[in-house]
Fold this protein.
Amino acid sequence: MIFELPLLILLLTTAAGALVVKDLVSAVFILGSYSFALSLVWALVGAVDVAFVEAVVGAGLGTVFFLLALFRTGEKDTRIHRVPVPRIALLGLPMLALLMLYGAGDLPVFNDPQAPAASHVSPVYLENSLEETKTPNVVTAILMDYRALDTLVETIVIFTAGIACALLLRGRGK
Amino acid sequence: MLELLQDWLQRPNFIVFVILFLWGFYIMMVHPNLVKKLIGLYILQTSVIFFLVAFSAKQGATVPVIETDSLPVDALRYANPLPHVLTVTAIVVQVATLGVSLALVSAAYRSFGSLDENELLEEVERAA
């Protein structure tokens, strides 16, 4: 709990940097540091697998993708004049914010062991997965044993994304 | 009113989620530069994942890796693994879609020579 608040502030600061900075290359690097701050927060709440994936795939691969795209295109943020903010953004976003903050009271308390999310299905997995799958890591057990078919379909999604990238970037060298 | 304020102070994670979600959404709507829009999209997506993972935390619980020397398993000692599984999948799919959209952006730049949304629209109209 001591580390949580400074990490959340770090998260907000890096996100603000990535969104505000004019130069796109620096914005992308700040976005990478945002990903690392995020993976620190997740490691703190006990989601180590998610933290690893975010650090490797989000901060590493995502930053590489952004940089590859930027080095092939114009690097500077070319906005010269301020654009008028659309009225739907001015009206809609504060209303959305109010709705979300109004609903905050009905959420279960975070970190509560008796919260609904922690008290119905997940104890079954926690209690039985070692016996049924012989895998100490419950996340791996669910991902690779109970939900292996979903993981297979996920690899199909990634394969499709790879094909789409290859088709879009075809003939670049000419 | 005071009660609502107390609700927010008890959930700093939720406040951070709301700020990141709306800020990313706002940049996606307003900013004319396509790469900046994608940065906003990335922050929006990670904020939702952050919100899901925040539900998995339990007071006094550790990472969901079972210690084999303390059986039978007490579920209260380990964090909820289900949001972790969902979000591991979501992060990978998110970066895959990010790659496709960046490829689209660079293809648009190759054809029309701009990353600015308004200039792109003008170019498309001129070409049509």
In short: Chain A has a mean pLDDT of 85. The first helix of chain A runs from residue 4 to 20. Chain A touches chain B through 91 residues (CB under 8 Å). The helical segments of chain A are 4-20, 24-44, 48-72, 87-102, 116-119, 122-133, 138-146, 148-168.
